[in-house]
Structures are given as structure tokens and as C-alpha cells.
Amino acid sequence: MNSEFDYMLKRAARGLMSRREFVGRASALGVSAAMANSLLASVAQAQPVKGGVIKAGISGGESTNSLDPAVAASPAPFAVSMLWGEMLVIVNEKGEVEPRVAEEISSNADATEWKFKIRSGVEFHDGKTVTAEDVVATLKRHTDEKAQSGALGIVQGISEMVAEGDMVTLKLAAANADLPFLLADYHLQIQPGGGYDNPNAGIGAGPYKVVSFEPGVRAVFERHANYFDSSIGHADGAEILIINDNTARTAALQSGQVHMINRVDPKIVELLKGMPGVSIERAAGRGHYVFIMHADTAPFDNNDLRMALKYAINRQEMVDKILGGFGSVGNDFPINAAYPYFDASIPQREFDLAKAAEHYKASGHDGSPIVLRTAPGAFPGAVEAAQLFQQTAAQAGIPLEVKVEPDDGYWSDVWNVQPFCASYWGGRPVQDQMYSTAYASTADWNDTRFKNARFDELLVAARGELDGEKRKAMYSEMAMLVRDEGGLICPMFNEFVEARRAEVGGWFVDPTHELMNGRALAKCWLTA
CA-CA 20 to 30 A from 8: which of 32, 189, 216, 292? Predict the structure, then answer.
């Protein structure tokens, strides 16, 4: 069966499409009604089971984590916020915008004004009804630089926000045909009063309520009885255990302490495949593992030095040895073929020691060690990746020093603070969101300190360009600016490699982000 039919079958089995609609659309794809009904019946045998407590072992948690969605910057707070929170919209596994708190979306002809009708009867965990005013207040809080929101680069383009009845109207400083995709950013969980009074309260409209939260240890949840979507939230409770150590996380899965884990080390995939009751899940998407340089901080404010380091990394070796083949080579900009408007004609940057040495000499660097910070939790294999980088850089005469930092505090004290470190990005559904979040000059999460007036100009222009070819050309130029002038070293795009126990039902592939875009605990169920 083709992917379109498979997608429809999964939606029908989950109750997101009526049998009549499924059979009709299947017929249009050449599948007979009898065959469609038979396949649906077989899939329907695996219908959601209610009850139990579903648990995940997750890396990327720290004692400095909070429940404020604005500052969620690593896997654990992301997964926690996606359980208690709910956004205006999400991007589903097919890459489409799916309404959540908003039930209808419309815009004017030139995409400078967008309207979101707020769904009736959506309830916060404290019993209050979600209103248009809550939505506007939430968006406004993320425009405040003091909130340190990862969505700052997204919401800054909104010039006016109006709540009237059940309607939210957003007027933009410049046209943006992708605004709904941007508002699916996981930082934008709708909070009572926008979260101004207590952004760390963990009160949202999501499928589970926070019962307890121990930063860097665990988060415990109970099902939100008045959640508006009956197709999500099957277990009575959910629990996230922070297990940063790869071996311990895998052992917790094997023993049944948890039902699923993120970030399976590629080196043990084959071992896990042979274990009874454990399944490996893979999703190829937009995630990428990176080394980031602050382009405004010496010695990385010298583009020859940046280029030397870019040529000194062996991308294919990284994919083979660090990812175990579960990914593809990067090209020093954060976009791959999973994105619309990707330009495949951009030349692939190759490992070139001669060019690395040439640029290093031209930089005039004094020969002192160039410190690259990393940690086991930066991404799977991050320490080994940094050491491989150190070895190849040395062959070009570049003195790279690897400093291994502790996982606890890495995302608050190293990433976006220190001038050269290992990091990861889960990617975003569209190029505008990826660039607005991390490469716009004013973005709070501009972790390479890339500030380029031409790039910013193109970013705004591309948002409102409805001609696909012209828009693609703009994104291509932006990619080249990041690739050749920015502080990003992107050696590889990773697959999301995760594992679950056999008793977990309802799993499906979602390339948007790890653990089914952070909703695996809510969308899956326990069959035993």
C-alpha cells in the first residue's frame, strides 16, 4: 500500500476519520471497499486500551529545568510540556497543520492578517475555560525579551494581537504564509492569563495534569478528565523519569521500569533488536547534531577560522561512526531534503584538509588551543564526535581542545553561553520557523550569534512570497549565507532512534520531533 493509504488507515483506526470517509478515499486510490473494510477491521483490533500508568525514560534533563515552556531547551522539559500543555495548533506526522485550541484558521489574501477561532469548551487544569484573551496573553508574554523565550524570533513578527469573543486576530508586520506552522512551536503552550503570574505553574490545557515535578529526576502526571480530545490520553497516569546515562536508560527499558526511551545509542541498536519484547522505532526528519560557534566572539569572529573548522570535519565519518548510518551528512546550514523549498543544487561541503589548513593560516590564529565543549547529553555520541573532530582538525594543524562538561547544567550554563560547543536541533516543520527561531538577528535562541542584514531581509521577504520558485531562491541564498558566513558546523542530520516495549500500543512514525513529537505518552496506550 502507498503511504497515503497507510496514513489514512492509521487515522481511521485512531478515530480521526470516519469509516465512510476512509472507504471513499481508499476507493479513489484504487482500493476496493471490501479490502478497505477488511484492513480497517484488522487494525481496529488494536484499539486504545484505557488505564494504567505509562512511563518513559528520557535523557536531556537537568536540576535547572523548570515548567516554564518559554525556556524549555532540551528533551526532558520538551516532553514534559507536551504532556501538560496544548497549543493553538500542532504539525502532525504528515507535516500538516492540525488545529488544537484553535478550531478554525483563516487569513486575508496577502497573509498579513490571520484569524484563529478558539475551540469551545477547552478547559485548563484549574477548571477555567481557555479564552481568546488567554491565547493573546500567552503570545504577548513570549514577545517580551525578559521571558527568554525560544519562540521570541517567531512572535516578534506579530505587530498587533486582538482578542474579541472567541476570535484571535493577529496582524503581521510583513506577510507570512507559514504563520500557523510557526505557532506550532512547542514553547507556545497556552497558559491561564498567558502565564504572567506564574509561568512555572505547569497549568495548561493538555491531556495530563502535573502531579509532581522534580527537576532532573522525574515528572508525574494524572489524566486530565475534562480534556477536549478523547482520542488522546489513554492511560490514567504518566511518568517521565530522567535517565541521562545511556546504559541506565536502556536497562530501565529492558527491565520494564519504563515503557519507552528516547535517544537510543546507535551502537546498541542491533543488540536491542535481538531482545524479546523490545522494538526499535526510527523516524527520519529534520533533526541535526551540530557544533556551534559564536560568530561575534574571538577567535570565532574571524570567518577564515570558522571556515577552517568547517573544512576540518569529516561528515561521512561522523554519520558512519556516531550515527551508525542512522542519518545523513549535513552541509553547514540547518535544512535538508525533508523541508519544502530545499535546494538540492547547493554544493556539498567536503572534508578537505588542504583548504582547512589554508583558511587556518589565513585566520592568523596564534596557535592557542581552541576549546570545544561537549557533554554526553548534548546528543548521542557527542563526546566521541568531538574527539573525532579533534583528530581530523589536528591533521590540518588546528589545535582543538575537547572539554567534557557534566550533563547537569549543560543547557543552562554551556549551550548559548559558551562560544563553541556541541548541540542539537530537533528541526522545525518549515524553513521560516527554523530560521526565525535560531538565525534571525533578534532571535533569543540565535546560538551562533549569526547577524546578517541581508539574511534578515530575505527572511522577511520569503515569508510573504507566494511564488514557490521565488521563495525557493530566497531560501537558497539564505542557506548559502549561513553555510559560508555563519557559525554553524552541521556535520549530520540524525534520525530519531527510540525504543519501546511490546506492551505499548498505538505507536506511529512522526518525523516532526522525537517521541512522536513529544506526545508518545499521550497517544500510546498499554495493552498489558
Answer: 189
3-state secondary structure labels for all residues of 324-349: CCCEEECCCCCCCCCCCCCCCCCCCC
Instruction: Quote the crossing angle between the two packed helices 19-28 and 3-13, to the nearest 10°.
Output: 170
Q: State how beta strands 278-293 and 97-99 pair.
A: unpaired
What pLDDT, in 10s, does the model give residues 285-325? Answer: 899 999 999 999 999 999 999 999 999 999 999 999 999 99
Rounded CA gap, 337 and 358, in Å?
Answer: 31
* Strand-pair partners of 100: none
Q: Which residues, 6 or more positions from 298, have their beta carbon under 8 angstroms from its beta carbon?
A: none
| Segments of 23-166 assigned E as strands | 53-58, 89-91, 97-99, 102-107, 113-118, 158-164
The contacts of residue 120 (CB under 8 Å, 6+ apart) are: 103, 166
**DSSP E strands, 108-166:** 113-118, 158-164
Taking the C-alpha atoms of residue 24 and residue 33, their distance in angstroms, rounded to an integer, is: 8
Residue 13's pLDDT is: 67
Q: Does residue 209 surpass a pLDDT of 80? A: yes
Tell me, letter by letter, the H, E, C secondary structure of 464-516.
Answer: CCCCHHHHHHHHHHHHHHHHHHCCEEEEEEEEEEEEEECCEECCCCCCCCHHH
Alpha carbon distance 413, 104 (integer Å): 41
Mean pLDDT of 97-118: 96
Give dist(CA 417, CA 424) in Å, integer: 15
